[in-house]
Design goal:
alpha/beta, Immunoglobulin-like, Aminopeptidase, 6-stranded mixed beta sheet, 5-stranded mixed beta sheet, 9 helices, binds zinc ion
């Protein structure tokens, strides 16, 4: 019996070897990450480049001079034959974006630079993509007196298209509620002739999170507000909360960010421990005093939402201002916050959210908060020392 088997396998092995040789290039490709696409958004002093991948990767970054260029080596990767490997940008910040198979296992993405002041990178998950934000030399100097200039507001109704967001027990979709609130909010804000209002979407379409931020940066917005409805496996969970971008160890906040980023809780927890996120938040902090302004903005919105609804329904629960790592707030150049306008998963709040009058009151509450922020005295510009923030030592 044993001998028989051995002689059989001798006959099979050469064939097996043959198949392995044939298949090995496919195995190599299958196990490596594919660089699928490269997208970019340009404006006068900001360019966002997104490299779409089939999985998360390790990458290294470098800058070389003569000619001035940034390059990113994506490890264990191959480049799709379908993509355009040389993209002319020519926006005064970048000349071109190029990608090539540098060696068997490395894809190199090169950004040919015109003139830049700064750049930052981060990886987003599900789908995996490498986001590169490049800042040009020209910067708006001081925050102008908001009482006398047009204030540019970008509103971002969450989700849309194939992404319904959270779905209520009676089948109410987050994407529909937040779009309606954003449209109502736009209308209220436009009553003030100094307000210029843009929406990242005005219809039921899907827009990737990184594109929403890029749109606000392109518009050179004075503030960015992403609007969402909350959800929890606990049916009794209810209330309103406003977020800004930062680490958190609050499990509830991590859960909210995981859902809004459409990534797993495990990945979300890991992201809060990731070291290169430090760099992103750090440069975010320096950038035009953004963090202090975002805290201020979040507080104004939260306060006026609560006071506006309180007199009305007596039902609203103030969950306060919180922080978490929301993809949609990464790299936003202006004060930016995300508001969760009630829990669609709570039967009572779902009923309220389906009510036109309640949505109008939410819009009015947010508008009041935004207007108060915009007409308040600008926070004095100061250099923020990282040491002042205990969160940087986590
Ligand atoms: Zn949402």
């Amino acid at each position: 019996m044993f001998l028989n088997l051995a002689s059989d396998s001798k006959k099979i092995l050469p064939y097996l070897g043959f198949f392995l040789v044939i298949l090995s290039p496919f195995f190599a490709e299958a196990s490596s990450v594919e660089v699928k696409d490269i997208r970019s958004w340009s404006s006068e002093n900001y360019t966002r480049v997104v490299v779409d991948l089939t999985n998360t990767v390790e990458f290294s970054k470098n800058r070389l001079s003569n000619p001035d260029r940034l390059y990113f080596d994506v490890k264990d990767a191959h480049i799709s034959k379908e993509i355009n490997t040389s993209i002319p940008v020519g926006d005064g910040i970048l000349k071109t974006v190029r990608a090539s198979q540098f060696n068997k296992t490395t894809v190199r993405v090169v950004l040919d630079l015109d003139e830049i002041s700064d750049y930052q990178t981060f990886i987003f998950d599900d789908p995996a993509r490498l986001v590169i934000d490049v800042y040009g030399k020209t910067r708006t100097a001081d925050k102008p007196d908001m009482n006398f200039v047009k204030r540019r507001i970008v509103l971002d109704p969450g989700h849309g298209g194939h992404d319904p967001g959270a779905v209520g027990p009676k089948n109410l979709y987050e994407k529909d509620v937040v779009l309606d609130i954003a449209l109502k909010l736009k209308k209220v804000l436009m009553e003030d002739p100094f307000n210029e209002v843009f929406l990242t979407r005005e219809r039921d379409i899907f827009i990737p999170l990184e594109e929403r931020t890029a749109m606000a940066n392109k518009k050179n917005a004075d503030l960015f507000l992403s609007i969402h409805a909350n959800a929890s496996p606990r049916r009794e969970a209810k209330g309103i909360e406003t977020y800004l971008l930062n680490w958190t160890d609050d499990e509830e906040a991590i859960r909210v960010a995981a859902r809004e980023n459409a990534i797993s809780l495990k990945k979300m927890r890991a992201m809060n421990r990731q070291v290169d996120i430090v760099d992103v938040i750090k440069s975010d902090l320096i950038r035009e005093n953004k963090r202090d302004e975002s805290i201020k903005l979040a507080n104004y919105i939260q306060r006026s939402l609560i006071s506006n609804l309180d007199s009305d329904t007596k039902l609203v629960l103030n969950l306060g201002v919180k922080q978490a790592l929301f993809y949609v707030l990464f790299g936003a150049k202006m004060p930016s916050v995300l508001v969760e306008v009630s829990f669609i998963s709570n039967p009572e709040e779902e009923r309220l959210l389906s009510n036109d009058a309640y949505r109008t009151e939410i819009a009015k509450g947010i508008a009041k908060g935004l207007n108060t922020y915009l007409t308040s005295a600008p926070t004095v510009q100061k250099v923020v020392e990282f040491r002042d923030h205990p969160s940087f030592f986590r």
